[in-house]
């Protein structure tokens, strides 16, 4: 499995977050055998009551501050997932990688502890936090998230046995505000061919080609404080936000490493073609030595 390899590409290993002390308990989140079986069958699972309304309200303040102050823009941690990522234009679908670097309070929440407890039960007793991002769909016009599999952002040769993402809204979400959508059972199938949206390599996101059979689509509305967990092979999307408020989603990814990552494994063609403004900003803000190392890693992967 390979969501973590997406992180290894967009984020140098030296920048990985420090281990998190989970002082708060997520022990109250206990999955039943029926829930685990449903996750294996469908590729996604809804879990309720990960935290309190009071904590969600506090998290929204920190979350909104990240985007309003455009923290991380120069480093490439804030960018447009489905647009060309220009500082002169509004972002169609703003995404923030590793937001806890800029808001350390995110490291010490009940929401995070509960997510870790869920990961322990689905992927193994010592899961690694391989992914943290925040996705903000602006009110009234927030763009749709293209249909994709998380593994498409990866490269071959991952040493991770399995990976999951835990998608947690910071307000109630429904189809009108851009809740998650899944194709049940797609986690049991192959990794499909992907491309940049509109076949434009300047855009960070990916979309499956051809698109999936939407007659099987399942929409997953959620109340705040709940989560939907999906497997890294599960086909998923999220619709346009037509509501009057931003749709705030906070995502944590976990995996268990079964072996060392292959240093010389090649990347997928749809990732090698990327030439995004986000990547350029990230490179420009690295010291010369790290820029050189990143270029060497890209060459090893086929770029």
Helix and strand topology:
Blueprint: H1 3-10, H2 33-42, E1 44-47, H3 53-68, E2 78-80, E3 94-97, H4 110-123, E4 128-137, E5 145-148, E6 160-169, E7 180-182, E8 194-195, E9 207-208, E10 218-220, E11 227-231, E12 236-238, E13 247-257, H5 269-272, H6 277-284, H7 288-300
Antiparallel strand pairs: 1-11, 2-3, 3-4, 4-13, 5-12, 6-11, 6-13, 7-10, 7-12, 8-9
Description:
This protein has 303 residues and is an alpha+beta fold. The protein has one domain (3-300): Sandwich (Jelly Rolls). Helix content is 24%, strand content 21%. It contains seven helices and 13 strands. It has helices at 3-10, 33-42, 53-68, 110-123, 269-272, 277-284, 288-300, and strands at residues 44-47, 78-80, 94-97, 128-137, 145-148, 160-169, 180-182, 194-195, 207-208, 218-220, 227-231, 236-238, 247-257. It is globular. It starts with a helix and ends with a helix. Residues 1-24 have low confidence and may be disordered.
Q: Which features would summarize this protein structure in a list?
A:
single chain; 303 residues; alpha+beta; Jelly Rolls; 4-stranded antiparallel β-sheet; 7 helices; 21% strand; globular; disordered N terminus
Short précis:
With 303 residues, the protein is α+β, with helices and mostly antiparallel strands. Helix content is 24%, strand content 21%. The longest helix has 16 residues, at 53-68.
């Amino acid at each position: 499995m390979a969501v973590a390899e997406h992180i290894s590409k967009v984020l140098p290993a030296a920048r990985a977050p420090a281990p998190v002390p989970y002082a708060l308990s997520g022990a109250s989140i206990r999955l039943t055998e029926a829930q685990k079986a449903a996750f294996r069958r469908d590729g996604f699972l809804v879990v309720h009551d990960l935290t309190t309304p009071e904590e969600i309200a506090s998290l929204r303040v920190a979350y909104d501050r990240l985007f309003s102050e455009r923290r991380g823009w120069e480093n490439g941690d804030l960018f447009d997932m489905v647009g060309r990522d220009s500082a002169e234009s509004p972002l169609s679908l703003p995404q923030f990688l590793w937001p806890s670097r800029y808001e350390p309070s995110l490291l010490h929440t009940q929401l995070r502890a509960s997510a870790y407890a869920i990961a322990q039960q689905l992927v193994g007793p010592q899961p690694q936090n391989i992914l943290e991002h925040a996705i903000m769909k602006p009110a009234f016009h927030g763009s749709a998230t293209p249909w994709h599999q998380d593994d498409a952002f990866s490269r071959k040769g991952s040493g991770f046995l399995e990976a999951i993402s835990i998608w947690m809204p910071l307000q109630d979400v429904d189809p009108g505000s851009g809740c998650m959508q899944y194709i049940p059972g797609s986690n049991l199938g192959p990794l499909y061919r992907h491309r940049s949206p509109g076949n434009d390599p300047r855009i960070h996101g990916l979309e499956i080609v051809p698109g999936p059979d939407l007659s099987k689509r399942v929409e997953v509305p959620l109340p705040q404080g709940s989560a939907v967990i999906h497997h890294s092979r599960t086909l998923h999307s999220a619709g346009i936000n037509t509501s009057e408020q931003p749709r705030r989603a906070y995502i944590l990814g976990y995996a268990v490493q079964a072996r060392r990552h292959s240093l010389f494994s090649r990347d997928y063609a749809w990732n090698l073609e990327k030439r995004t403004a986000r990547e350029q900003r990230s490179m420009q803000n690295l010291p010369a030595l790290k820029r050189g190392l990143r270029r060497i890693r890209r060459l090893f992967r086929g770029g």
